[in-house]
Amino acid sequence: MGRRVLVIGGGAAGMTAAIMAARSGASVTLLERMDRVGKKLLSTGNGRCNFTNLDQKPEYYRCSQADFPWKVIGQFPMEKTVEFFAGLGILAKERNGCLYPNSDQASSVLDVLRLELERLRVPVLTGCRVQGVQREGGSLRVLTGQGPFPADAAVLAAGSKAAPATGSDGSGYELARGLGHRIITPLPALVQLRCAEKDYKQMAGVRTDAGIVLCVEERDGVWRPAASDCGELQLTDYGISGIPVFQVSRYAAAALHSKRRVKAAIDFLPRQTPEETAAMIRRRADAMPDRTCEQWMCGLLNKKLSVVLLKRAGLSPSQKAGSVNESGWNALMGQMRSFETMVTATNSYEQAQVCCGGVDTAEVDPATLLSRKTKGVYLAGEILDVDGICGGYNLQWAWSSGAVAGLHAAVPPGA
Ligand SMILES: Cc1cc2nc3c(=O)[nH]c(=O)nc-3n(C[C@H](O)[C@H](O)[C@H](O)COP(=O)(O)OP(=O)(O)OC[C@H]3O[C@@H](n4cnc5c(N)ncnc54)[C@H](O)[C@@H]3O)c2cc1C
């Protein structure tokens, strides 16, 4: 019989770890607290599962130890992920570098993982919440609601606190703490931002291309840019959402957590230079002096947004464009190109796609993902202090770290 490996958590990382360990000859059991494995996977990529990305760079993965994620991903990179899933039956389809199953169904990705676990005869115990992991002499004892399980190695892949309805309720952090690990405060990331201004109710539902620069007020009182992105922005009744907001959200979460003020400057004409916008305004002002300001904005930006921009620029939507002076046009241009909004909070873990923070990677060996605190324990997936940007990078982290942890958990130390 191979080494007894228990995998805690049946998400993307845990299922990959279980498959890799079983393929390496270990006797593997997967323990999952929910009534089925892979619940989070089903909601990924709007139900289509963006499972990786052709464009891979170290800076797309964030971690307190900057080089840690890449050392792990290098052992099971995107190419191996694509090969792994092709071997399981997934024909990949590409959209702007993002890879999806050709079926456009996240359930296909979960199905092929489950089929492989079945083929490898890995027992999957659902409804089995792990309550603790103890080291006893040369082996481990994993305590669960269904009794204790002895093991030679355990892979802790219980996820973060993001989207807890899918099973990741943060109990993995408590298990890691019990094993002597330090937890870097988890915070919602890839999440919407709530803003202070009252005019969002008027703009709710607007989707528009925009650039966003997130600025943080440092201790010296100076506002500094912390992150920026560009893409389809969504305005909601409480603030801002959409991929560019998700991309900068972890920096907002961290700054707000450390009690610093955060604002965002939104550029609603990101494809134009300032000179082009100024020339366009002059042209339109000359061409349409008899239109009201609201009519003058027609075709330029979404109507709901236009009304708010005009008001913020001190212009009345009903005043004639011909009556607007130079400083009025400049004020409007300022609103169109750099609309400032104070960020008061992120949305909660319930709405977050991932968490930043987690188990401190300084306490984990990147070559094997073996805990430096408790022998025989490996860690994989989002439970670690690693988060990727939007675009398939968080699942890539789950596959890579799951594969590395599973492979090493299966091999006896010194072998
Ligand atoms: C709505 C949404 C959309 C997303 N879309 C994408 C996308 O398209 N592309 C992408 O790359 N990433 C996406 N992500 C992020 C990605 O899904 C996660 O980063 C990834 O699934 C994390 O995998 P994991 O295995 O580490 O954790 P999880 O998938 O959270 O799995 C952890 C598992 O452990 C179980 N568990 C927890 N505690 C215990 C315990 N004590 N005992 C036993 N079991 C336990 C949980 O029930 C869960 O099944 C999305 C996330 C969300 C919420």
List keywords for this structure.
415 residues; alpha+beta; FAD/NAD(P)-binding domain; 6-stranded antiparallel barrel; 5-stranded parallel β-sheet; 13 helices; 21 strands; 32% helix; elongated; binds flavin-adenine dinucleotide
State the CATH class of the largest domain: Alpha Beta
Distance between the first and last residues' Cα: 16 Å
**How many individual β-strands?**
21
CATH topology of the largest domain: FAD/NAD(P)-binding domain
- The helix count comes to 13
Let me know the largest β-sheet. 6 strands, antiparallel, barrel
If you average the pLDDT, what whole number results? Answer: 97
Amount of beta strand: 25-35%
- Give the overall shape: elongated
Helix content: 25-40%
Cofactors and ligands present?
flavin-adenine dinucleotide
* Main sheet strand line-up: 13-16-15-14-17-18
CA radius of gyration:
25 Å
> Which CATH architecture of the largest domain is right?
3-Layer(bba) Sandwich
Regions with little confidence, pLDDT below 50 for 5+ residues:
none
Number of individual domains: 2
Helix/sheet category: alpha+beta
Please identify which CATH superfamily of the largest domain we are dealing with: FAD/NAD(P)-binding domain
Description:
- The protein has helices at residues 12-23, 39-43, 68-73, 78-88, 106-119, 171-178, 200-203, 243-257, 274-287, 293-296, 303-312, 326-337, 393-409, and strands spanning 4-8, 27-31, 52-53, 61-63, 92-95, 98-101, 124-125, 130-136, 139-144, 147-151, 153-156, 183-189, 193-195, 207-217, 223-235, 239-241, 262-267, 339-346, 354-359, 377-379, 386-388.
- By secondary structure, the protein is an alpha+beta fold.
- The protein folds into 2 domains: 4-187 and 355-409, FAD/NAD(P)-binding domain; 192-346, no CATH class.
- A 6-stranded antiparallel β-barrel has the order 13-16-15-14-17-18. The chain has a 5-stranded parallel sheet with strand order 7-2-1-11-20, with helices on both faces.
- Helix 1 (12-23) runs parallel beside helix 5 (106-119) and helix 1 (12-23) packs parallel to helix 13.
- The protein is elongated and about 85 Å long.
- The two termini are 16 Å apart.
- 47% of the residues are buried.
- The structure holds flavin-adenine dinucleotide.
- Flavin-adenine dinucleotide binds next to helix 1, helix 2, helix 6 and helix 13.
